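Researcher: Please translate sequence to structure tokens.
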Amino acid sequence: MAEKLQLFTKPDCRFCVAAKETLSRAGLGFGEHDVSASPRTANLSVYLSGVSTVPQAFAGEMHINGSQDLVALNAAGRLVPLVAAATAAIDTDHLSDETIAHGAEDIVLKDYIPESDGTRSDDPEQWAILRFYKDFFGFWPNCFYFQHHWPESYKLFVYAHNVGAIGMGQKILGEPVMMATGFSTSEASGCNYCQVHMTSAAGEKSLGIPKLIEAARQGQAPEGSPIGPFEAALADLAAASTTNTVSDELLARVRANASRKRISHEDVEANITGTAMIASAFGFLNTFNDLTGVDIEAHWARQSEQSAGIEAGRHGVSEARTATNLDHDLPQGGPSVEAMVAKYEAIVGEAGGAEAYARRELGLLPDWMHLWPEHLRARHAVFYVEMMQDRPHSPVPSELKHLMARVSAIARGHDYLAAVEGLLACRAAGSDQRAVERARHCFDAAKSRPEGQALFTEKERAALTVAWLSGQAPITTPRRCIQPAIVHWTPVELIHLFTVCGVAGLVQRFSAIARPKIEAEVRDFLEQHELTADTLALRYPLPEERHGAAT
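Model: Translation complete:
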């Protein structure tokens, strides 16, 4: 590898073409490696980058993740100086084929984490969940066998988020469009598990949803189809929330097609909010399910593959339980769904409302929380706080949780969320200079850069790398990246890490659509400590922008 800039590509890849055109316009020479040419080259791309897609670029040892970042770096005038600052091409000659293949192997974490069966739970507060899913799906989803390891997370996600968010989305959008937006946001994430669920949950009515979306995109929506131009635009909005690419043009397209609604009787702004609610739920589910690699339920997997062409992919299929895990007498006592929702809302009410509660627990009311639908705001506030702040039911420190959310936001280019999570992490750690430096260098630690080493333990760095993996689409867990987390965190603790990443994904997708503004407290924090809100610069700092890491 003689050139300082190396590019991994494959034939017939439009993103690879865009990357090479960008490098050509920038006047940069590069070494090209076709991942289809040999197993070593294919494995090497994953081994070095931690990402399963191409193109992947390296300016010396600095990993540049995909064509979108190459284009953005060039547009910002950062690409040429970044390459110029690279000392030498990355050296891989000493690595054997076996070492590279071993490090690139996609490790499915469900094989490391034992299941926790909640279908016969003795916790009365969980019984309403079993009854809810018996009515909703007919079975207890496989993903819960892992989330159930953190009982408070399991209960809060269902009662304080999913019941309200999915319920609101379905009521506003109608069931077919709720399925369409859930499918589209999951497809953009690469989550086969949730794609299967969205095409199978309503039987024949949902199995045809992917084709109906595509027909509407092409201006060929059949008469009587629930998916027309407006609904296809909402599906595209949900997909764009996954990749943080919601544009003014896309929102204008949604609004321009509002008069062509086929199902919803609500106004266009309500439909946008309903889409944000569905996207937020799948922001959690896609992230958690892909990090665990949970098996897909067999009957839905077969149905979806045969009728919609969606394969299980890296998830695999569970043949053992199929749809029978709730085929027993379910307990009828315990609090109802409504009573559990009221319990969580009362926590916020006793503090004086969502704003007072957030200021007590977080020190500010984040603008994304302020933009959350008012009747669901208290539930969202208690869900976020209970998952992210120090609590007896979680072994992961609050500071590390917020740093993980910051790393995930940086990876996905969420400038606002990276900034606010930096402040929240700093406050959780006591707001001293070391806390500031940890917020400054957490992404460096996630990417194993020298600046991030001294400030974090190996265990913390492993958690931050998990957060970085959670910011990719599709999410995979190559052994070289995930092994430190397996070594340093117990299987149950891994569930806590994955849940934190899911919470970050949930907030990110809502925020991509709702577009919160940076709070004055956060802006002051950044200015006081000379922290940038530019996530492109955080992903790819130039030499003069690097700060020496305090220990």
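Researcher: Any highlights?
Model: The first helix runs from residue 14 to 25.
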